[in-house]
Amino acid sequence: MGNMDHLNWFVANPIYMFFGGIIMTLAWQSSSLSTTAIIALVASGAVPLPAAIACVLGANIGTTGTIWLAGLLVSDGVPRGDTLRIAMVHTGMNLLMAISLLPFVHQIAKYVGRFG
After folding, report:
1. For 64-89, what is each residue's pLDDT tens digit?
2. Are 47 and 17 in contact (CB under 8 A)?
3. Residue 3 · residue 39 · CB < 8 Å
4. Contact between 21 and 56 (Cβ < 8 Å)
5. Residue 56: which domain range?
6. pLDDT at 57 over 60
């Protein structure tokens, strides 16, 4: 792999990677693609495991963009009714999970690293 020293400020910070995962998944509309790319980067040694876990948590939030986009296309510009309720619950649960786990990415990485 090429020289990635100029990206260390981003890759070494789990918070930046968390937001990067959100943006990457919103752009691609595929959390599976985002997660697969992150796994490949971890396997190659380009991304440390704690940052990768944060990025996957971000990808999980980014995937909620699909339901909001569908809600916009189904309604007259603002999701209403069942579409709004589904979007709110989907986004809320993913945010709750990410907010709960994000402070512990280093501990999670240490635990997962024992199996590698």
Report:
1. 998 888 888 887 777 888 888 988 99
2. yes
3. no
4. yes
5. 12-113
6. yes
